[in-house]
Amino acid sequence: MRYWDASALVSLCLAEEATAALRSLAAAGIATWAVSSVEIASAIERRTREGHLTQTEHAAARAALLQLAAAWTEISALAPVRDRALRLVATHAVPAADAMQLGAALVAVADRPAGHAFVCADRRLREAAAREGFDVLPDR
Question: At what angle are helices 6-13 and 55-71 packed, to 10 degrees?
């Protein structure tokens, strides 16, 4: 199972340096937290407001998000994710949203991360996922 953080999923919606490598990883399927689509939409809208995306690029990114979200597996069990996130914020230097992502990944693998991948672009979250026992992708 490959769990995807929103930081990596953004690169599947926008043309970025890591997009090609991440697309090849996505072929194996995507599991993610139920609110990842909101995080990705926020990143798209922020980049549009800042003038980094044209309206055409914005529309393409939003369409890519809808297509991805229709195909991925969502982890939506709030209470178990929250319980893990409460431990994670005390254990790792990660913000609440990242703890929820990592908590969702732990729920997805029934708290047995060994042999499972965590796909992420955020340095601190990558480090926390590795310390929890996930194989972190992409390799840097």
Answer: 120
Contacts of 16 (CB under 8 A, 6+ apart): 10
**Confidence label for 113 from pLDDT (cuts 50, 70 and 90):** very high
Please tell me the predicted confidence (pLDDT) of residue 60.
98
Contacts of 48 (CB under 8 A, 6+ apart): 55, 58
- Cα–Cα distance between 83 and 131 in angstroms, integer? 18
**Rounded Cα gap, residues 11 and 19, in angstroms:** 5
Phi then psi for residue 25, to 5 deg, are -70, -30
Contact 88, 94 (CB under 8 A): yes
Strand partners of residue 33? 75
